[in-house]
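Work Package 3 (structural annotation) set out to generate three-dimensional models for the target panel prioritized at the project kickoff. During this period the team completed the workflow that converts sequence records into discrete structure tokens, so that structures can be stored uniformly alongside our sequence database. As a representative example, we reproduce one entry of 290 residues exactly as it appears in the project archive.
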Amino acid sequence: MDTTTLRTFIALSQIKNFTKTAQQLFVAQSTVTNRIRDLEEELGTALFIRNRKQVGLTPAGQKFQSYAQRFIALELTAMQDIQTSPTYARKIQIGTTNTIYECHLQKRLCTYLQQKPSVSLHVTISHTAEMLQKLQEGILDVVFSFSALFRDGYICCPYRTDALVLVCRGDDTAYASGITKDDLQKIDYLFCNFALQGVGLYIQDLFPRHHRFPLEIDNSTKLPQYVAAGIGYTFLPRSLIEEDLLKGKLRAVPLLDFAPPKVDSYYITRNPSTIPDSLKAVLFTDSPTF
């Protein structure tokens, strides 16, 4: 089983058409067909369900897909480590959720690169489950996540604690004196299904079951512009919208009879850690620069 065949399998699983996959890979259609046939023979099972117009993954194909993607990722990491430019003394692989990156890491990583030009940082922004898997496989050196990992052989410590703030457009004077839990159901609430411990469930439970929101999105960092445009209200981590609050683009709405839970994030790495002390010092500083 070689990585060329695995790349062909991944491409076909995404494109779902032999002809278009061949065009994408700049090979003959027969080459794609032969590679998939050889792979299925090697694994002893069918990976695709074929029909006239497109193909789909079998249950075995769906299971194998994640393994194939991890094989390719591991190969890429190995090649990059071996062929690292002599300009860089070392390379550090960082995994993070988008919210933690926007709220806490971006400025700190910029500061570190200015201080340590001989270090190469590779930042992967992804979902927690995928990142923790890559951490265990040695592809990532450190993960910043809203989920903890308490397991032998790993270091997991609190990183940041954020307060959730209900915000609206800066010049919106409704509920200037505060809002009650019951009043939430009267506003246009923009919903983000936070993958932050139980925070997402807590917010969802503030509304009736099957409540219809004017906007639902799975990335909280994309919400401030909607709120600033006056489309509605939403809860956001304070560190994400601190500058918008100071500039008056957004306004924090006081909560009168309830308080949302805090949002905790974690720093996770293998034990012993390969993260240099100089980087940890910047990551954990309370005063990032940019």
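The chain has a mean pLDDT of 88.
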